[in-house]
Amino acid sequence: MAARMTVLAGHLQTHETIQTPFKDELIANAKAICAPGKGILAADESQGSCDKRFKPIGLENNEENRRRYRALMIGAPGFEKYISGVIFHEETLYQKFDDGRSFPEVCKALGVIPGIKTDKGMVPAHNGAPGENETQGLDGYVARAAKYYAAGARFCKWRNTYPIQNGTVSPYLIKRNAETLAKYAQLSQMAGLVPIVEPEVMIDGDHDIETCQKVSEKVWAAVTAALHAHGVIFEGMLLKPNMVVPGSDSGKVAAPVEAARATITTLSRTLPAAVPGVFFLSGGLSEANASAYLNAMNACTDLPKPWVLRFSYARALQSSALKAWQGKDENKEKARLAFLHRAAMNSDAAKGVYDAVKDGKGAQASLFVRGNAY
């Protein structure tokens, strides 16, 4: 008689998600952020990043001017028609709008969901390749997440970066960053915050689009595996990846359809359909290209797209407004119109109906910042 093998139930475990009292709320909030034609305003620049933004317009980088900068966008009349969520920096989460209400209170009154950047920046990845960084901030994370929830935040964001060097990324960084992102997502969901997972394969470098696609596929697959292993509720999270494009020093600019097809193909090979939405970072693309590439993805009909494809932009939403503002109150209305224009263009792109004719030449200017750090 052939030997029998008894398979214990534990040998064939199914995917078990974490147990959190916020499960239904997480799923509902993730779905709400994915509202048709809307995206996320990434207003989470650090003090250092604000310094880079303010210097060209001669504006002093202090707490009040940072508050005024955030209020410029949040106070734009009707921005809620295009924006479903706003990612705040920790400082801004506790600051007041012009009328004395907190920024989260202003957003909630408009039906916009407040979010918070929860990572604590990057440090050298000592076991990785030279120039690679990992992200810190997990120490004391549960207490911080609970504090942010109490302040009104309902989603959060954590960014890890992957610079392509010699056509690749070190195995250490891929594994380390995947584990960090998954642990962050797990702890966030335990605290009631919808995690936006941001694995950014950086645009810096001279690589071609095929190399970007290869590395992005490897990175995103590792992140998905780690999320699965940590029991993250896929229906209650969002992904914020790079678009698949050639490197900034390659001398090449991808056509919108080329970038769109490479990006969708890579996502379809790596991201579960259960994740409700993908919110792209602009990564230094010009305002026009950030809209055109997103539009091409949403206009594509012959590739699998089980998730909504939206935007989560900082520079590609705010750069024109900042230039128009110049830090002066008398320019506030003009700056807000510039912001609303970009929000409307990206809303059209999220629906696949963006018309580049509506954009001026200024929208073509590169927003690339080498080694960009938030």
List the helices and strands and how they pair.
Blueprint: H1 23-33, E1 39-43, H2 47-54, H3 63-74, E2 83-88, H4 90-93, H5 103-109, E3 113-117, E4 122-124, E5 133-135, H6 141-150, E6 155-162, H7 171-190, E7 194-201, H8 209-229, E8 238-239, H9 256-270, E9 277-280, H10 287-299, E10 308-313, H11 315-325, H12 332-351
Parallel strand pairs: 1-2, 1-10, 2-3, 3-6, 6-7, 7-8, 9-10
Antiparallel strand pairs: 4-5
Helix pairs in contact: 7-8, 8-9, 9-10, 10-11, 10-12, 11-12
Could you characterize what this model shows?
The chain is an alpha/beta fold and 374 residues long. Helices cover 41% and strands 13% of the residues. Helix 11 runs antiparallel to helix 12 (332-351).
The strand line-up of the biggest sheet is 8-7-6-3-2-1-10-9
Ends apart, CA distance between termini: 66 Å
Question: Which structural class is indicated by helix and strand composition?
Answer: alpha/beta
Number of strands: 10
Strand content: 5-15%
Give a quick rundown of the structure:
This protein has 374 residues and is an alpha/beta fold. The protein has twelve helices and ten strands.
Task: Give a quick set of tags describing it.
374 residues; alpha/beta; eight-stranded parallel sheet; two-stranded antiparallel sheet; 12 helices; 13% strand; globular
